[in-house]
Structure of Zinc-binding dehydrogenase:
Amino acid sequence: MTAFTQRFAPGTNCWVTFAKLPLRPGYSSVGRVEAVGARVDEAAESAAWFALAQIAFRGLWTTDTRIGGSLVVVGAGPIRQMVVRWASAAGLGIITVVDPAGQRLRHALDGGAHHVFDSTIADIVEALHGENEAIPTTYIHTTGNPHVFSDVQRRVPRFGRVVLLGDAGHPGEQRLTSDVLIKDPTIVGAFGAQNREGWPNERVRALFLDLLSAGRFSVDGMVSHRFPPKECREAYDLLVNSRESIMGVSFVWEYSRQVAAPDVPG
């Protein structure tokens, strides 16, 4: 959507290079193997999440959070939902998700989140953990809103870790605060295409598909809207005007074999 709406600052290399118009959007597609006589429509749609799951994997990897650890995910959009599911599959102790778009939080709970907050990270006054739970020390910021970075710095505890997952359209507005000196946190970036420590993208995708098949990485209900390709204008209008009510949008090329399209808010 950053590319589609051209909402990025001049000179931001990633967006200036990638988002040139005309642009063929999308990078996650799956097909159906029919040579062996089997058709897996629903499984194929679930598998289409592999690209966003790959990005989320890179973000969680940089947290250094291990089994039993705690994590705060700031934002509950599609990539953040994948972070929650990786964290759950990895056995993290407490997973907390914060997002003012409350309708997205049910997907986080379905994916393994323990606590959810229908609020911005700046507006939360209560603790992000239960009475007998350890204070979460790691925050993954994936909202794409550069101003949230300052709020996360204010929230992270001393010697905590902040992970920037995703490239904001206006990175110059992601500013450091005095919390960096006072709290001495670790701030790291994560990029979805980086291969690290024996984990090339092919291996990450294979692990995602294995967990998906085993029922340990559920994406049930994550596709909120389906469109035939000829209705692409309606799909993108919906993404622009009602983004907070949307999770995954799927273009179904053989639409007649699928369930009926849900009602699209006007």
The domain at 54-190 is CATH 3.40.50.720 (Rossmann fold). Confidence is low (pLDDT under 50) at residues 255-266. The CA atoms of residues 227 and 251 lie 5 Å apart. The longest strand covers residues 70-74.
